[in-house]
Amino acid sequence: MTAAPAPVSSTAAGALSAFLRGVERRALVVAELQCGDPTVAEQALVAVMRAFAGIASDLPMAQWPERFWSLLVHRAPLREPTAGHWPAPLEHLAGLTPPARLAFVLRIGGGLDEAAAAQILDLPMADYQHALADACPRDAHGNPDAAGWRALAEQVQLRIRDLPASRLQRLQQPVAAPTSQQPDAASWRTPARPDAPAQRRPVKRQRGRRFPWKGVLIVAVTVGVLLGGAAWWKHARQAGAPLADTPEGAVADAGPVKVEALPTDDLPTVAPTASPFAASDAAMLADPDLPTARDADLYAWFAAGGPVPVDESQAQPSRPEPATAGLETAAADE
User: Fold this and answer.
1) In this structure, is residue 231 part of a structural domain?
2) Taking Cα atoms as reference points, which of 95, 118, 97 lies closest to residue 107?
3) Which of 43, 124, 251, 280 has its CA 20 to 30 A from that of 30?
4) Is residue 42 domain-resident?
């Protein structure tokens, strides 16, 4: 049972068609040299192309080569080929076991490197290299024949290059013949078209967007709860902080201070005591020369011939008189 091609875009369909055109020539030669029957090889390749077209749209393009060759080499006619026929230049392939022959044609005909070919065949690298060694021609002494290997590789490349175009055209045949009730059958490469365009559901136009009162209310309530909790926590911390931080023996009451008048009845009466200096102070205060004694520093300065103080209530000269001017005048007057 073959997979039907899935609907793909025109770009993907073009990429798929270009990929198959680029790989079909080598793939046909690989299938033919592996099974030894051109008809069986064409049938196997057509089945692989149909299956690949059905899954290609689900794969990245970078995985297309690996998946295509994996589908081809796992076909029964290639895994377990029956008796076939090989031309004279390639008679060496008839004497190889199917695994060794498949390893050879995939490496030379498919143009794959050893790592990619081993991964496609699900073989470890050592097993794949061992299969290639079994496929290598031997000389008379049983040693690998490098010239024989190059000759086989040249014959395979020549067969790929000279492949008739008619055989490639047969690979593009439609899946089934057209009938009166069906449209013309296109090639299986053409992506399938949907039977009818999907009916689009009418899109309801949204009316003017209403203000999200519910969301705003939820946000407001949440903010109010948070603010209330923060205020309560702050008040609780302030109320409990003095009790926790008060040292032992200290007053922790933070209430208002009460003021009360103390009773004066029980206060003791203290008699005023006379100062021992009261008599001497009274004699000094009664002395008539006390004002002169209080200005003794002024008279001492005047007797020493000090300068006369400047009267700051009047305008001052730009150049002040020297300090010795008054002394000289006083000396001259004498």
Assistant:
1) no
2) 118
3) 124
4) yes
